[in-house]
Amino acid sequence: MILPIIGYGDPVLRKVCENVAEDYPNLKETIANMYETMYNAYGVGLAAPQVGMALRLFVIDTTPFSEDEDLPENEQKQLKGFKKTFINAKIIKEEGELWAFNEGCLSIPDVREDVYRHEKITIEYCEEDFVMKTEVFDGLAARVIQHEYDHIEGVLFTDKISSLKKRLIQKKLKNISEGKTFQDYRMKFFGKKGR
């Protein structure tokens, strides 16, 4: 089932999310709905707060990036079919150079900005079987994970840009929070009249 994506301005996007219990009702269905919602919106990642749930849960599939011919061939291969579910994730280390990449977000449509992130992360998380894993990721895979991880910490990519750039996009953000934007995927807006 395709869920509406929560737009910028909704308080759920600012919550530090709660851990997911192993007996969380309909978890497999929730995860399947999140993947379906993400694919419907042509995203590469989606976090639970973006569909209105303050849970430490996000899904990613970096396959669309694997078609970017500007990327080295080994990174294209790494990104193709890289699909993962992250439950109760905790980044335990960020390392390497900070590098910029032009990011966007399904909850903040039509806004893209360069964001600096570390090139390599170590993260603890559970997949759907709730077995704890610790893994190291780098490059664009690490970036997508960091972006979605920020969501479960109540952080948006617009928090990581300069104050000048924030001022320049202020009107766009206000319009999004009021539902004055059009996307070809379902959205739900906190500040929209008649909600």
UniProtKB/TrEMBL annotation:
Its cofactor is Fe(2+). The keyword GTP-binding does not apply. Its EC number is 3.5.1.88. The keyword Protein biosynthesis applies. It catalyses: N-terminal N-formyl-L-methionyl-[peptide] + H2O = N-terminal L-methionyl-[peptide] + formate. It is an enzyme of class 3 (hydrolase). InterPro entries: Peptide_deformylase (IPR023635), Peptide_deformylase_sf (IPR036821). It comes from the Bacteria. Fe cation binds at residues 105, 147, 151. The active site is at residue 148. GO terms for molecular function: metal ion binding; peptide deformylase activity. It holds the Pfam family Pep_deformylase. CDD domains: Pep_deformylase (cd00487). Binds 1 Fe(2+) ion. Keywords: Hydrolase, Iron, Metal-binding, Protein biosynthesis. GO terms for biological process: translation. Belongs to the polypeptide deformylase family. Removes the formyl group from the N-terminal Met of newly synthesized proteins. Requires at least a dipeptide for an efficient rate of reaction. N-terminal L-methionine is a prerequisite for activity but the enzyme has broad specificity at other positions. HAMAP family: Pep_deformylase. This is Peptide deformylase. It comes from Flavobacterium agrisoli.
